[in-house]
Specification:
InterPro entries: AB_hydrolase_fold. This protein has 91 residues and is an alpha+beta fold. It contains six helices and two strands. Helix content is 55%, strand content 13%.
Length: 91
């Protein structure tokens, strides 16, 4: 787990920068969920806006009443959000 965080500051960041420079984007519907009791809303005023730079055509996102670990803190809510998003994209 710690190595995943380290990679985010090192090699992952280098790959992100190269992808951005090359104009590569995620080209599928993207759902961004975050815990409202985590520090993400404090660190990033517009969380979906951060992802919008990476995604075409658009990002859908919302906060979940949870801490950092949504799957552990709010599993039912997470499950509802994922099922609803799947229904939207799968028709």
């Amino acid at each position: 787990m710690c190595e995943d965080y380290r990679a985010g500051l090192g090699v992952d960041r280098q790959h992100d920068d190269a992808d951005m420079e090359a104009g590569r984007r995620v080209k599928c519907p993207t759902l961004v969920l975050w815990g409202t009791r985590d520090d993400l809303p404090v660190l990033y005023d517009d969380i979906t806006g951060v992802w919008q730079e990476w995604v075409e055509p658009e990002v859908v996102g919302r906060g979940v009443d949870s801490g950092h670990h949504i799957a552990e803190d709010a599993p039912e809510r997470l499950s509802r959000e994922l099922r609803a998003a799947w229904r939207e994209v799968s028709g």
